[in-house]
Amino acid sequence: MAKRNTWEDHYTRRARSEKWPARSVYKLEEIDKKYKLIRQGHRVLDLGCFPGSWSQYCLKKVGPQGDVAGVDLEKPAPLSAPNFRFIQGDILELDPEWLADEIGPRDLVISDMAPQTTGIKIADASRSLELGNRALAFALILLKKEGHLLCKVFQGEDQETFTKEVGRCFDQMRLIRPSAVRKKSKEIYLLGLRLRV
Ligand SMILES: C[S@@+](CC[C@H](N)C(=O)[O-])C[C@H]1O[C@@H](n2cnc3c(N)ncnc32)[C@H](O)[C@@H]1O
């Protein structure tokens, strides 16, 4: 009998049958359904957008009046939407002021960025936190008043400092572990609601 691929789960199969490029779409969907983050006409910045499921989900939700800009090291298969713009680059090197000039203010910044993992937990958590801090820096420059930030980080020693910083910048802060996060994963999502100006 063929050995069952334990990496493939209900969400992987569902994503394939519903034609999403990644199962991670169900994490965003769960958070969005609960907090009603993404609305018609919204302008979204999706950091770490490859292979594109979060951007596709957002495009459906924002409709033709809204738009989505995605940044990643890797280029996703082109999304057939006129209101999607892809910027290829390393978020650690991109200038947030330049991006703000290019794409304008945003209602929502979402980041599902993850570093290449090494298996060394402390190192992986620290690199993930570096990406999280960068996502926060972009959010502080690009978000409109009362805009929201959703950001993934790997849980680790220094995560609390980052959590406090997000809490300081937004009216409310939530720590969320959606059901599609794999049991062994260290991923956690920080949601900052309504940017304080
Ligand atoms: C888990 S995937 C994102 C999946 C995406 N949310 C989706 O649903 O299709 C994480 C992404 O973060 C990107 N990433 C990691 N480090 C980055 C960096 N320094 N700059 C830009 N993107 C980065 C990776 O290239 C990868 O595509």
- Number of strand elements: 7
| Rounded Rg | 16 Å
The first-level CATH class is given as Alpha Beta
CATH topology label: Rossmann fold
How are helices and strands ordered from N to C? HHEHEEHEHEHEE
Helical coverage, percent range: 25-40%
- Globally, the shape reads globular
Q: Overall pLDDT, averaged?
A: 94
- In CATH, the architecture is 3-Layer(aba) Sandwich
CATH superfamily: Vaccinia Virus protein VP39
Biggest beta sheet summary: 7 strands, mixed
Trace the largest sheet across and list its strands.
Answer: 3-2-1-4-5-7-6
For this structure, the quaternary state is single chain
- Number of contiguous helices: 6
Strand content: 25-35%
Ranges where pLDDT stays below 50 over 5 or more residues in a row are none
N- and C-termini, Cα separation: 60 Å
Distinct bound molecules: S-adenosylmethionine
Overall tally of domains? 1
Alpha-beta classification: alpha/beta
SSE order and pairing:
Elements: H1 10-17, H2 25-35, E1 43-47, H3 53-62, E2 67-72, E3 84-88, H4 96-103, E4 106-111, H5 121-142, E5 143-154, H6 159-169, E6 170-176, E7 187-195
Parallel strand pairs: 1-2, 1-4, 2-3, 4-5
Antiparallel strand pairs: 5-7, 6-7
Helix pairs in contact: 4-5, 5-6
Would you give an account of this structure?
The chain is 36% helix and 25% strand. The chain is built from six helices and seven strands; from the N terminus they run H-H-E-H-E-E-H-E-H-E-H-E-E. Helix 4 crosses helix 5 and helix 5 runs parallel beside helix 6. It is globular, with a radius of gyration of 16 Å. The chain binds S-adenosylmethionine (SAM). The site of S-adenosylmethionine (SAM) has 23 residues, from helix 3 and strand 2.
